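Allow me, if you will, to draw on your knowledge of protein folds for a short while. I have a record of one protein: its chain in single-letter code and its fold written as discrete structure tokens. Kindly check, if you would, that the fold set down in the tokens agrees with what the sequence suggests. Thank you for your consideration; the sequence and its tokens are set out here:
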Amino acid sequence: MKKFIVSSLIGFLILTFGAVSYAIDFKMSGFIDVSGQWGSNIFQPPYEVTGNMWGGRTATGATFTNGAGPLSNAIDHTRAWAEERARLRFDAIADKNLQGTLYFEIDSTRWGEPSGDRNRAGYWGADRSAFEVKNAYITFGVPWIPVPITMNVGIQPLAQRPGILVYNDGPGVTAGIKVDPAMIKLFWYKPVENQDYSGDDNDVYGIDVSAKIQTISVGGYVMHYNMNSYPQTSATTSAPTNRADITWFGLYAGGKVGPVNLSFDFAYDNGKVEDRRNALGPFLARDIDYSGWAILAKVDYPWEKLNFGATFIYGTGSDANKTNQSGVQDGSLTANGTIPKEVKGYVVPPGAEVGDDVSLLFFGVGPAGLNRGITGMLGSSGTTLNPGQAGGAWAIGPRISYQVTPAYKAEFRALYIGDTTKHGNTVASPLKNPLIPALGYQDDSEIGIEVNLMNYFKIYKNLLLNVGLAYLFAGDGMDYYDSATGLNKSPDDPWLVCTRLVYLF
């Protein structure tokens, strides 16, 4: 009898807790990819260098030189490397109103890279601590309220028009409110906390309102970065040097108009960076005002197996005579030796992983493009405001793709790329007269003409191979000052061959 009672109790526990465990539906997805890059004068940051071989576009442009440093011999030489990324996502779904998401990433920025852990999975011998948390958040519907509200709480994406403005992963809270026909999104993120007892933290606030009108979706947003610590770095042990308050306003639209697919983004930034130290004294300007704008527009006309499209991108550039390279009051002066006061070039937030599928060489193709956006001369910074993909440049050109077979698609692109920086260049910094640097920088308007041939192969249903070829016929806007020789030089035309093998699951 006792055995029967014990057996019955064990069976009851198994049924009870088994029912609880099976009430959760687990889903797993992700990918593993291996990419290869071979080319000359392309974006290629070695792991030990911040920025790229062109110096990285800052507030006024780049500081592309061929002087000392790890990249001193990179210009006009071919470079090749392979890298790898894997992502693994778990969704624990209780019901339509509740789920949890865990998203992990493993990165190798170079096969055969030096010792270390983060992004060093390609170290020979492996056994690296390269398993990273990308997202960890709870999604739930708010009960007892008649209006549908969905909350995301935890480490999650900040994806505000990532083709032109910002994509980041970080801690935050978002609320999606459905009020037909509109969707209202409120969000708050915490990039930096620093010392709990001091006002040196950073916050992001925003609202996005969108609606679908027949076949077109339209929307607008306001996003504000309050950065009491600037540049935006964590674990600050001393008083921050600057503070910044920047607001972005934007409009967007996308959808189908007759047989044509349209996509449009407009973004405008406005704010200031202020020196917290008052180190320059009461009679000198302490603030640097920021204001700039950018447009990204795409049109596509699909016709049977063909697609005819065009891309236009424009971002305002700064005036090198009014802005220093850093964009903050750090004691450095403008190109003509005056105190910096403004940045008119379009900027994106610190750490923004921003970029649309524009081109392989100059703009990069964005995180979801042919080679995952590994290449591109776009400016980026994890700590400061930066031009992103659009600031200081404009481009226009056609796209034509053809589905040759069910397993192979080819695409051709061409772009004319111009420079919008005043009294200087966006990509590089040639001097008007290398013998008299005080005369300032050259001001060139043409960056060049880029052509791309992109090939997409489906080897199996879940195994894809992408192959890209790109060439940039460089204009005067790519010239640079060679600090080793004291002369202005023109680089060889940049070119690139890249591949990406990806397994989706």
